Amino acid sequence: MSSTVATAPERAAKQDRSPAPPRRRVPAPYFLLIPAVVILLIGMGYPLVWQIVTSFQEFGLKQQFGQPADFVGLANYFELATNPDMWGVVVRSLLFMVITAFLTLAIGLLLAVLMTAVGKAVRLTLQVSLLLAWAMPVVAAMTVWIWLFDRRRGVVNYLLDMIPGVDMNRFAWLENPLTFFMVASIIVIWMSVPFVAFSVYAGLTQVSDEVLEAAQLDGATPWQRLRFIIMPMIRPVIAIVLLLQLIWDLRVFTQITMLQDAGSRASEFDLLGTYIYKLGAGSQDFGMASAVSIFVLVLTVAISWYYVRSLLKEDEQS
C-alpha cells in the first residue's frame, strides 16, 4: 500500500483552483431609487431645513434685503405658546379638520356602496359626475360657490327665501364665523368626496363574491354583511383615506383665502394655513410664520403616527 504526500506548491495550486466566494452585489432597485431620493432631498429637504433655522431667528422685512437675522432661540415658540389667538386658530383648525374629514368619509363611503348596488348606466353617470367635480380647478369652483352664496345675487338665498316662513333675503353667509366655516366645509367636502368614493369603491370591488354569497346563505342581512364582512376587509383603504383627508383638511388654504376675500378677513375666520400666510406675507414676520409651520408639521406627524405604527406592526408580523 502506497501513500502520496502533497507538497506545499501542490496544496497552494489546489487552493488557487477552489471557487472564489461570490461577491455581494447591490440590488438594482437601490440604484433606481437614488434619483428620486435626491430630488426629494433637494425639493423638500432644503425648505424644511430653512424653515427650522428661520423659526429660531428674528426674520423680517430687513432680512429680505440682506441684513443678517438675529438668533432668538425658542423665543418665537414661547411667544406662540402664550398667544391666545394662536390657540384659537389651532382649535378652529382641529374642529374643522375632524368634522370635514369624517363627513367626507361618510358621504364617500355611502356613494361607493351605492355604486356597487346600482346598475351600469346609473353607476357610469355617477362616476362621470364625480370625476367632473374632482377635475374642476379650485379657483373656478370657488368662483361658482361664492356666487351661489352671494348675499345679493346668490342662488342659495333665493331658493331658501322661497320657503314659507324663511327670511333669507340678503343673508350674509360669509360675514359670520359659524356660517362661514359651514360654507367652507360644504365646499371642501364637495371637492374631496370623489377621491374618497373612488378609493373605497376600488376596495369594494376586491371583496370576494363567494364570501358574500356564503354569508347570505348563512342568513346574514345586508347590514350584517356590510358591517362584519365588507368593512373589516376594506379597513386598510378606509384608514389611509381618512388619514389623507385629515392631513389635507388641516392644511386647507385656497378655499379659506378666497372665501375671506369675498367676506371678511378678520382673525376669527382664520385657519392654520391662512394664519401662517398672514404672519409671513402679510406681517413680514417669517420667523413666527416658520415656527407655526413647524408646529403644523409636528401636528401632522402626530396625527399620522397611529397609522404609521400600525403599518410597522404589520410589517413585523409578516
UniProtKB/TrEMBL annotation:
Per the record, the coiled-coil ranges are none
Transmembrane portions of the chain: 30-53, 94-118, 130-149, 178-204, 225-248, 286-308
SUPFAM superfamilies given in the database record: MetI-like
Q: Give the subcellular location.
A: Cell membrane
Keywords from the UniProt entry: Cell membrane, Membrane, Transmembrane, Transmembrane helix, Transport
An example GO biological process term is: transmembrane transport
Q: What is its main location?
A: membrane
Which Pfam families does UniProt cross-reference here? BPD_transp_1
GO CC, one annotated term: plasma membrane
What does the record say about its membrane topology?
Answer: Multi-pass membrane protein
Q: Which CDD domains does the UniProt record give?
A: TM_PBP2 (cd06261)
Ranges where the ABC transmembrane type-1 domain occurs: 90-307
- According to the record, the residues making up region (Disordered) are 1-22
The family database entries (PROSITE patterns) matched by this protein are listed as: ABC_TM1 (PS50928)
Q: Which family does it belong to?
A: Belongs to the binding-protein-dependent transport system permease family.
Protein name (database record) = Carbohydrate ABC transporter membrane protein 1 (CUT1 family)
- Source species: Microterricola gilva
Kindly list the organism's lineage. Bacteria, Bacillati, Actinomycetota, Actinomycetes, Micrococcales
